[in-house]
Amino acid sequence: MRIGVLCSGGDAPGMNACLRAVVRSAISAGHDVIGLRHGYQGLSQEGLVNDSESAWTLDARSVAHIVQHGGTMLHSSRCQSFASQAGRERAAENLRRLGIDALIPIGGDGTLRGAAELAAIWTGQIIGCPATIDNDVIGTDFTIGFSTAVETAVNCIDKLRDTAESHQRLFLVEVMGRHSGYLALYTAVAAGAEVACVPEVPVDAKAIVELVSELKRRGKQSFIVVVSEGGEQGGAAALSRQLEQAGCEFPTRSVALGHIQRGGTPTPADRILGTQLGDFAVQSILDGATGMMAGQIDGELVLSPLARSIEEHKPLPNDLVELLRRMSC
Ligand code: ADP
Questions:
Q1: Ligand 1 atom closest to Cα of 112?
Q2: Could you read off the pLDDT of 285-316 as tens digits, one per residue?
Q3: What 3-state class would DSSP assign to 157?
């Protein structure tokens, strides 16, 4: 059997571990792996051919010493044309021409949506692997890359807390997650931040200012608010202005962590998850599965329909929301 593999969408630390596992599991079972460069952009280009620039056979040594690196050795992309029927038809035609029997796309919810759409027009097997720092994919407790992104954000906030405390300031720290508050919430709990502002809950600047005043009376010298980026709520800079207008008692500063959160050395948790899911995706293909995503729920490796990633939004864990609130007293 010939298995194609690609990385798509926002890069996430641990993608390389997943890729390595796909290659080595398939080779261990006597199958071939074709690495497809530049995600769906590369896959849907006109007349894709088998060459080292775009689609070539990966052997066990070609994925040596990548488990410790962030990013992806296959390169990633965001691809407008793949969202169109014509783009996906070109991708399906390329897969047929390259003799690929099964495809493993590694990426976030957009990538998995794309995979579900491709499955409707291509007869080969597709098993997706969820890799995104947002952890917004249904069908797995954690996505590849989330653990590393939380660690990176927490390390940054530990540094900011020193300055916040020295100067008695309120820092608004913007993390990624336009549609999901997972990264903000986990980062806030781990960093000992006082508040997390997430896209799932409307921000109440007045309530934050009241909490700040109350905690100041109780002796707090500094304040950290973790804010999910952009979206309708406007991110850290916008919230900083709202807090000042609402009479915040601390001088405020806002910091956007931006792309710093994406890269870096993957944590052991992301390397292990990437390896498990990559291996599981290959085993699932060999068992005949298709149209599914490989995930891990309560420590068990599970498959869930790719179509679910289109239909459902992963809810925030309420217990963690409440835990953060209890810690801010
Ligand atoms: P991520 O996979 O990290 O969520 P994106 O949302 O940018 O990143 O999605 C990656 C790519 O997946 C897009 O650039 C596009 O090519 C493809 N994609 C996203 N959504 C769809 C969709 N609804 N239908 C088809 N392809 C899609």
A1: 2
A2: 999 999 999 999 999 999 999 988 778 889 99
A3: helix
